[in-house]
Structures are given as C-alpha cells and as structure tokens.
Amino acid sequence: MSRKLTDLQPWECLMKRIVWKQLGDIRDKKILDFGSGIGVTANYLAEHNHVVAIEPDEDSVKKRWADNQYTQIVGSTEELRKFADGCTFK
Question: pLDDT per position in the chain (90 positions), as tens?
C-alpha cells in the first residue's frame, strides 16, 4: 500500500519534513535506523540508500511503510551483535 506523508498526524508530518530538510540530499549511503517505528523515515531514506531498520515493537513493524525496499529487523540493539565487526549490511 502506497502511503503519503500527509497520511500522518500534522505535527509528525511537519517534524519529518524539517528533519529531512536538515539532512539534505543523502544518496548511496548505508543507513541504520534504530527505533524505526512504522518505518516512515527508513522508507524515505531507502529511496536512494541501503537501509537497515531495527524496531523492537512487532506491532509497529506490522504497520510499516515499505514503498521502497529496505531490510527490517524486529528486535533490540542486541540484533546488531549478529553482524560481524566491520561487516557490511546485506
């Protein structure tokens, strides 16, 4: 299901627009989004980047935004231990 930023609460929509504007044009990067919630920012950044999103709340992950392809992990920071030191995200 394709969603729009305006589907969010107005305050959240405004906050995301401000943060994304401050981040600038990010492309071809590897990004870790911890505490990704429903994946709005992970989805946005995945348009031009390789994104791994980690969210502890399984219910949030079930509602995630996934118009763009990114890796979603359900769990805590302990999930990061599964990646070898210096390992690139797959």
Answer: 678 888 999 999 999 999 999 999 999 999 999 999 999 999 999 999 999 999 999 999 999 999 999 999 999 878 877 766 665 555
CA distance 46 to 4: 15
| pTM of the entire predicted model | 0.83
